[in-house]
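Reopening this one. Same input as before:
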Amino acid sequence: MSDFTLHDQASAPEQSKPLLEKSMKAFGMIPNLHAVMAEAPGVLEAYQQLHDLFLHSSFDADEQTVVWQTINVEHACHYCVPAHTAIAKSMKVSDTIVEALRNETALPSDKLEALRTFTLAMLRQRGVVSQAELQAFYDAGYSRRHALDVVLGLSQKVMSNYINHLAQTPVDEPFKAFAWSKSE
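Same output, byte for byte:
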Protein backbone atom coordinates (compact mmCIF):
# COMPACT_ATOMS: atom_id res chain seq x y z
CA MET A 1 0.00 0.00 0.00
CA SER A 2 1.21 3.49 -0.81
CA ASP A 3 2.11 5.96 1.88
CA PHE A 4 1.48 8.99 -0.36
CA THR A 5 -1.20 11.44 0.76
CA LEU A 6 -4.16 12.28 -1.42
CA HIS A 7 -4.21 15.98 -0.65
CA ASP A 8 -7.25 18.21 -0.68
CA GLN A 9 -7.57 21.94 -0.09
CA ALA A 10 -7.22 21.46 3.67
CA SER A 11 -4.12 19.23 3.71
CA ALA A 12 -2.19 20.51 0.69
CA PRO A 13 0.91 22.67 1.04
CA GLU A 14 -0.01 26.35 0.66
CA GLN A 15 1.61 26.63 -2.81
CA SER A 16 -0.49 23.72 -4.08
CA LYS A 17 -3.86 25.10 -3.01
CA PRO A 18 -4.38 27.36 -6.07
CA LEU A 19 -3.18 24.52 -8.31
CA LEU A 20 -5.75 22.16 -6.80
CA GLU A 21 -8.37 24.85 -7.35
CA LYS A 22 -7.33 24.93 -11.02
CA SER A 23 -7.75 21.12 -11.16
CA MET A 24 -11.18 21.43 -9.58
CA LYS A 25 -12.25 23.99 -12.19
CA ALA A 26 -10.86 21.94 -15.08
CA PHE A 27 -12.18 18.53 -14.04
CA GLY A 28 -14.99 19.23 -11.58
CA MET A 29 -12.96 17.32 -9.00
CA ILE A 30 -9.40 16.95 -7.81
CA PRO A 31 -8.11 13.91 -9.69
CA ASN A 32 -6.19 11.58 -7.39
CA LEU A 33 -3.07 12.05 -9.50
CA HIS A 34 -3.20 15.79 -8.81
CA ALA A 35 -3.92 15.08 -5.14
CA VAL A 36 -0.70 13.04 -4.95
CA MET A 37 1.32 15.60 -6.94
CA ALA A 38 0.18 18.38 -4.58
CA GLU A 39 2.78 17.12 -2.08
CA ALA A 40 5.35 18.82 -4.33
CA PRO A 41 3.84 22.05 -5.68
CA GLY A 42 6.42 22.36 -8.46
CA VAL A 43 5.52 18.90 -9.74
CA LEU A 44 1.81 19.67 -9.88
CA GLU A 45 2.44 23.04 -11.52
CA ALA A 46 4.78 21.51 -14.10
CA TYR A 47 2.30 18.75 -14.87
CA GLN A 48 -0.55 21.20 -15.33
CA GLN A 49 1.58 23.37 -17.61
CA LEU A 50 2.70 20.39 -19.70
CA HIS A 51 -0.92 19.27 -20.00
CA ASP A 52 -2.05 22.73 -21.16
CA LEU A 53 0.87 22.97 -23.60
CA PHE A 54 0.15 19.54 -25.08
CA LEU A 55 -3.55 20.40 -25.49
CA HIS A 56 -2.39 23.35 -27.63
CA SER A 57 0.24 21.38 -29.57
CA SER A 58 0.20 20.62 -33.29
CA PHE A 59 -1.94 17.51 -32.68
CA ASP A 60 -5.72 17.22 -32.92
CA ALA A 61 -7.75 15.33 -30.29
CA ASP A 62 -7.31 11.94 -32.00
CA GLU A 63 -3.57 12.42 -32.27
CA GLN A 64 -3.23 13.68 -28.69
CA THR A 65 -5.03 10.55 -27.55
CA VAL A 66 -2.72 8.35 -29.64
CA VAL A 67 0.37 9.89 -28.04
CA TRP A 68 -1.02 9.83 -24.50
CA GLN A 69 -2.47 6.33 -24.60
CA THR A 70 0.46 4.81 -26.49
CA ILE A 71 2.72 5.91 -23.65
CA ASN A 72 0.23 5.00 -20.92
CA VAL A 73 -0.24 1.49 -22.32
CA GLU A 74 3.49 0.94 -22.88
CA HIS A 75 4.14 2.01 -19.28
CA ALA A 76 1.20 -0.16 -18.09
CA CYS A 77 -0.20 2.76 -16.11
CA HIS A 78 -3.19 1.46 -14.15
CA TYR A 79 -4.37 5.04 -13.54
CA CYS A 80 -3.69 6.95 -16.77
CA VAL A 81 -5.21 4.45 -19.21
CA PRO A 82 -8.67 4.68 -17.60
CA ALA A 83 -8.31 8.43 -17.01
CA HIS A 84 -7.34 9.10 -20.63
CA THR A 85 -10.12 6.83 -21.83
CA ALA A 86 -12.56 9.15 -20.07
CA ILE A 87 -10.70 12.22 -21.38
CA ALA A 88 -10.78 10.82 -24.94
CA LYS A 89 -14.53 10.29 -24.69
CA SER A 90 -14.96 13.89 -23.49
CA MET A 91 -12.85 15.02 -26.48
CA LYS A 92 -15.16 13.05 -28.84
CA VAL A 93 -12.41 10.61 -29.92
CA SER A 94 -14.00 7.56 -31.54
CA ASP A 95 -14.38 4.35 -29.58
CA THR A 96 -12.55 2.60 -32.43
CA ILE A 97 -9.41 4.63 -31.72
CA VAL A 98 -9.77 4.36 -27.94
CA GLU A 99 -10.20 0.57 -28.00
CA ALA A 100 -7.37 0.04 -30.51
CA LEU A 101 -5.02 1.93 -28.21
CA ARG A 102 -6.18 0.14 -25.05
CA ASN A 103 -5.94 -3.28 -26.75
CA GLU A 104 -2.81 -2.58 -28.82
CA THR A 105 -4.59 -3.44 -32.04
CA ALA A 106 -4.49 -1.69 -35.42
CA LEU A 107 -5.61 1.92 -35.53
CA PRO A 108 -8.16 2.96 -38.20
CA SER A 109 -5.69 4.99 -40.30
CA ASP A 110 -2.11 4.59 -41.48
CA LYS A 111 -1.33 8.11 -40.29
CA LEU A 112 -2.43 7.41 -36.70
CA GLU A 113 -0.56 4.09 -36.80
CA ALA A 114 2.59 5.97 -37.90
CA LEU A 115 2.15 8.32 -34.94
CA ARG A 116 1.86 5.37 -32.54
CA THR A 117 4.91 3.68 -34.11
CA PHE A 118 7.00 6.85 -33.86
CA THR A 119 5.85 7.52 -30.27
CA LEU A 120 6.82 3.97 -29.28
CA ALA A 121 10.20 4.32 -30.99
CA MET A 122 10.86 7.59 -29.15
CA LEU A 123 9.82 6.02 -25.84
CA ARG A 124 11.59 2.67 -26.18
CA GLN A 125 14.77 4.13 -27.67
CA ARG A 126 14.83 7.17 -25.35
CA GLY A 127 14.74 9.58 -28.26
CA VAL A 128 17.44 7.88 -30.31
CA VAL A 129 15.44 7.12 -33.45
CA SER A 130 16.95 6.27 -36.80
CA GLN A 131 16.73 8.49 -39.85
CA ALA A 132 14.49 5.82 -41.41
CA GLU A 133 12.07 5.95 -38.44
CA LEU A 134 11.97 9.73 -38.61
CA GLN A 135 11.47 9.68 -42.39
CA ALA A 136 8.59 7.20 -42.06
CA PHE A 137 6.97 9.63 -39.60
CA TYR A 138 7.43 12.51 -42.04
CA ASP A 139 6.18 10.38 -44.96
CA ALA A 140 2.96 9.76 -43.00
CA GLY A 141 2.28 13.51 -43.06
CA TYR A 142 3.97 14.70 -39.88
CA SER A 143 6.57 17.45 -39.47
CA ARG A 144 9.52 18.37 -37.27
CA ARG A 145 7.09 20.24 -35.02
CA HIS A 146 5.04 17.08 -34.60
CA ALA A 147 8.21 15.15 -33.66
CA LEU A 148 8.99 17.74 -30.99
CA ASP A 149 5.39 17.67 -29.75
CA VAL A 150 5.73 13.90 -29.24
CA VAL A 151 8.57 14.74 -26.84
CA LEU A 152 6.25 17.20 -25.07
CA GLY A 153 3.63 14.46 -24.67
CA LEU A 154 6.30 12.05 -23.44
CA SER A 155 7.41 14.57 -20.84
CA GLN A 156 3.89 14.88 -19.47
CA LYS A 157 3.24 11.14 -19.44
CA VAL A 158 6.56 10.19 -17.85
CA MET A 159 5.63 12.44 -14.93
CA SER A 160 2.17 10.98 -14.47
CA ASN A 161 2.96 7.33 -15.23
CA TYR A 162 6.00 7.22 -12.95
CA ILE A 163 4.22 9.01 -10.12
CA ASN A 164 1.24 6.68 -10.42
CA HIS A 165 3.53 3.66 -10.19
CA LEU A 166 5.40 5.18 -7.24
CA ALA A 167 2.30 6.29 -5.33
CA GLN A 168 -0.02 3.47 -6.43
CA THR A 169 -2.54 6.20 -7.12
CA PRO A 170 -6.09 4.93 -6.70
CA VAL A 171 -8.24 5.29 -9.81
CA ASP A 172 -10.90 7.98 -9.37
CA GLU A 173 -14.53 6.87 -9.24
CA PRO A 174 -15.47 8.43 -12.63
CA PHE A 175 -12.62 6.52 -14.32
CA LYS A 176 -13.29 3.11 -12.73
CA ALA A 177 -15.73 2.21 -15.51
CA PHE A 178 -12.69 2.23 -17.84
CA ALA A 179 -10.45 0.03 -15.66
CA TRP A 180 -7.60 -1.51 -17.60
CA SER A 181 -4.65 -3.82 -17.19
CA LYS A 182 -1.95 -4.67 -19.70
CA SER A 183 -2.53 -7.90 -21.57
CA GLU A 184 0.30 -10.39 -21.61
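So the earlier flakiness isn't reproducible anymore. For the record, The two ends are 24 Å apart (CA to CA).
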